[in-house]
Amino acid sequence: LTRSTYGERAKRHPNLAAKALLETIERKKSNLCVSVDVTSPSDFLNVIDVVDGLQNSHPSQTHVDIIEDFDPSLIDRLTNLSKKHDFLIFEDRKFADIGNTVALQYSSGVQKIASWSHITNAHPVPGPSIITGLKSVGLPLGRGLLLLAEMSTKGSLATGSYTEEAVRMARAHSDFVIGFIAQRRMEDVARDDTTSDKEDLLILTPGVGLESRGDSMGQQYRTPEEVILESGCDVIIVGRGIYGKSSDVDVQAVQAQAEKYRRAGWEAYEKRLA
Ligand code: UP6
Prior knowledge:
Distance between the termini: 13 Å
Order of helices and strands: HHEHEHEHEHEHEEHEHH
Bound molecules: 6-AZA uridine 5'-monophosphate
Number of helices: 10
Strand content: 5-15%
Largest sheet: 8 strands, parallel, barrel
Number of strands: 8
């Protein structure tokens, strides 16, 4: 897979959300996903508008539960931006409860995530029932799920047999699980005779920074080159490396940083193909 283009993989991929993601990455020449972790609704929309409007990001990762004074009309504006600028929405919800509860959290409440987020993710900790619960809501809508097989944080418990079980769970639900949040490729993990040679599990990787190796709360950063070229991952997820740490979002600086990360991610991919 690390030798195939995103476009070739899009043609072969059976899941609609994964296909759309791969096609858009190819079309926009961007394997950058900007994680828009800002709390003001206007900063949230401005950052997305500026990075996606100039074609450098795809998809946008959201955390709608951190937005102050959440108003459902924000979702209409986000959806309009996603159509206008051609990007997918990935709500980084990290579901972690029993099947019945996650199905309700995904479909209902104030946020109704399934109705607007093309991709979401879940911790494998409850076992396969978390997938069954989310799939009952998301599959009919053409959505895709990522499992957190690994985390970027220091001391993460998602290693070894936990990661292996996550991969087995994904394989058993390949109609809905399109890949992982992880730090490396997963094809060789827990492989056996029944594993299909055609499987294409996407790897979206957070913990990416060009200027720093971590933060004071356990986050660890690697460069786009380490993630895409050396570890063979598919998408870099970048938050503070793009919009900075201050509460004032400087839209021009955001645009410049997004373009820097987009270029670094794409160059690493081109080197990988070569
Ligand atoms: N994220 C991680 N590591 C993981 C999983 N998810 O950092 O293992 C998410 C965080 C944040 C983003 O919730 O939204 O990726 C990374 O942000 P940063 O680039 O500002 O550190």
